[in-house]
Structure formats: structure tokens, C-alpha cells
Task: structure prediction
Amino acid sequence: MMTPPIRTVALFGRQQSDAVAQTLLEIGAFLKQRGQRAVYEPSAAQALGRPDLDTADMAEVGREADLAVIVGGDGTMLGIARELAPHGVPVVGINFGRLGFITDIPLLRWQQALGAVLEGHFEAEDRAILRARILRDGSPVFEASALNDVVVSRSSRTGMIEVLVHVDGLYMYSQRADGLIVATPTGSTAYALSCDGPILHPRLQGLVLVPVAPQALSNRPIVLPATSTITISVTEGREPRVNCDMQTFADMQVDDVLEVRRSEHSCRFLHPVGYSYYATLRSKLNWHEMPSLAPRP
Result:
């Protein structure tokens, strides 16, 4: 199957970083030399002090761009990828952050790796996206998407919350905890992992439900089919909150219903040829390091 040519590339990055700004300009010049069009967010061009740059808002990027290059950390990648998913624009991540689970091109190798992608040498991977909404008396009062996870949690000023969970209309359990995480395979290596959730390979069609500090130690994580509709009601607790990828937030009230299901959209990640998810896990989780044999002080 022939890969469509990449003619227009949208560039995104953390605007408050001078180093990122310089990298964006270098990528733009690189694309121009190759005869390809680079477009920037209007706010990015303004922050760069370059009104001469070709700009496009998100809707224009969705219509015109063949690829989006995101320079930054995982948080930057999450935010842009969510917005571009409904438009079907694939994304490439150049790591300018600390961890880089989903921005997998090292900063020092961006030219070589990006050049190969632009020539059609890449591995594509579709990542699931969640759609969450809060229903109050049967009417939606909040809707948002998440590439990593949707989390319902207690306020930092209060104690545990009690939640009632149904899956596809069937009662699962009630539990008291600090919160509950619904994560995609992408999000299984984020907050869910820190709460002892399992790692799901991105190609798995599943969702993981992970309690946060449950009162009953028998409450364990569970992997559910990707087609599941999960409803979570807060039956007790003050000031419960919902967040999507720790970037979009909403307050809940007791008896509100949080509904989480897989979105009809997905996000396409393009990786350099030879990309290995297992290599990412070895690198980011230090699986390649042997336990220390040094005696304890």
C-alpha cells in the first residue's frame, strides 16, 4: 500500500521554552529545504516573535496537515494528540521532557528520525482514546476526552470517597478509596502504574480499572473489554473531582454519574522504523538494571 505524500506539517511545542522555540524554527527550516510546508499555531508564531511564519489554527491543521510534529514532553503530546484525533492527523513526538513515554524521538536525533518519517519510513500505531461525561439528573454537564486516563478522586482537603461502579449496566462493586482510575493501554504506564495497575500493550483492546488507595485491600485492578461502558457514581464524600489526563478538570456532586467509554476516534502515532515498545519499557522503567547488591547502611 502506497503511503500518501507528506506535504504539510504542523509544528507544536511548549511556547514558554526558548530551547523548544529554537527547535521548532530549526524543524521549520528543515522542512522548507525539503520543499514541504510548515505551519505553526498562531500563538506560537506570536511567542516566537515571527509574524512572517505560516500559521494555522487547530481546525485548519485538521483540514490541511498531513502530519503533526510535537516537541515537548508527554503532557504536551497528550494535549495536542487529543485535539487532532477527530481530524485523523497522525502525530510524531520529539522528546523535550523528562520521561518521554510517548514522545519517543530523542532530541539529538530528530533530524535523522523525522527525515525518515517524511520519506515514508515509519511504523504506525493507533492509540485508543476515552470519552468521559458527567450526568446530573440525566443531563450532561461535562464532556472531555483522555488519551491516558479518566480519574475520579477525592478533594485534597477531604477523606475517602465511596463510589458505585457498573460495567455495561451490570453492578460491579462499591468501594471506599481515594479515587478510581479508568485507563487506556497508553495510560497503563502513567498514574495507573503507580497504583499497582497492570501494563497493557498498546495493541491490546482493553481498559484497566485501578483503585487509588482503597480501604479494602481486596479491591484489585481489573482489565475490561475495550467496548465496555463504565459508570461511576459517587455515593458518599465531599468535593469529588474528575480529571482527564490531568489536564481537564470538573467538580462532581454526590449522585452524579461519570460515564466513561472508548471514543470512536483514535490517535495515530508514527514511530521511527525499529521502534520497540519493550525497549521503551526497558529504558523508562529501568528494566535493564540489575538489583543493587550493595549492603544496606
Notes: Helices lie at 18-33, 42-47, 58-64, 74-84, 110-118, 191-194, 277-285. The radius of gyration is 21 Å. The chain is about 20% helix and 40% strand.
